[in-house]
Amino acid sequence: MRTRLPRAEREQQMLRTARTLFAARGYGDVTMDEVAAAVGVTKPLLYNYYGNKERLFLACMKPAADALVKSVVSAVAAAPDPPAALRAGIHAFFAFLDADGEAWRVLHDETLPGGGEIAERIGEYRSRMEELVTAALQEHTESRAVEPLSVAIFGAAEALGRWWLRTGELSADRTAELLIRTIEPGLRMR
């Protein structure tokens, strides 16, 4: 006889399973049929909880984005000055990636749709991360260079994160230091 899980437990089970599948194979290659089968529920039950694949993905993505942003915000807030904040933020970014690569893969999935609510939410997450970089650059970078540098630094962190997850050649800390050593000389503009 099969035991019925309470709704909240079943919901968490569905999210954990979906997140693992999305992280491993990407949004584009995961189906609701697969998620339902992996959880051990019917597809109609999965749809009853989440409505569609997009909403299921968003339910997986939001806690991942919130956790990463919170981790970086905490590190940046504890720094004594903007240069230290930038370094602390980069270290926090890679420490998060090291601690929860699955969440990071969900956020940086290259198979995500280019439009719709998922694209909007990912855009909001990226904007929050770029704003943190912008705040750290503000005081020691020429004002017209702040925005493009923020985009470039965050893009470099994402690309290096993908490389790190694929190869694992360096520790997260050494990878963060590599990025910092690469960008810091170019930031001495003032």
From TrEMBL:
**Keyword field contains Amino-acid biosynthesis:** no
Q: Which Pfam families match?
A: TetR_C_46, TetR_N
Residues covered by the HTH tetR-type domain = 8-68
The entry lists its GO molecular-function terms as:
DNA-binding transcription factor activity; transcription cis-regulatory region binding
State the Gene Ontology BP annotations. Answer: negative regulation of DNA-templated transcription
What InterPro entries does UniProt report for this protein, alphabetically? Answer: DesT_TetR_C, Homeodomain-like_sf, HTH-type_TetR-like_transc_reg, HTH_TetR, Tet_transcr_reg_TetR-rel_C_sf
Task: Answer whether the UniProt record assigns the keyword Transcription to this protein.
Answer: yes
Question: What name does the UniProt record give this protein?
Answer: TetR/AcrR family transcriptional regulator
Residue ranges: DNA binding: 31-50
**Alphabetical UniProt keywords:** DNA-binding, Transcription, Transcription regulation
